[in-house]
Amino acid sequence: MTRSEELFEEAVRLIPGGVNSPVRAFAAVGTHPRFIRRADRQYVYDVDGTRYLDYVGSWGPMMLGHNHPVVKEAVLAAVEDGLSFGAATQREVEMARFLCGSIPSVEMVRMVNSGTEAVMSAVRAARGFTGRDKIVKFEGCYHGHSDAMLVKAGSGVMTAGVPSSAGVPAGCAQDTLTARYNDLAGVERLFEENPGQIAAVVLEPVAANMGLVLPQEGFLQGLRALCDREGALLIFDEVITGFRLGFGGAQGRFGVRPDLTTFGKIIGAGMPVGAYGGRREIMEVVAPCGPVYQAGTLSGNPVAMAAGLAQLTYLKDHPEVYAQAEAMCARLTDGLEAILREAGEPAVVNRMGSLGCVFFTSTPVTDYDTAKTADTKRFGEYFRAMLSAGNYFAPSQFEVIFLSGVHREEDIDQTLEAARRFFRV
Ligand code: KE4
Question: Whole-prediction pTM value?
Answer without folding.
Answer: 0.98
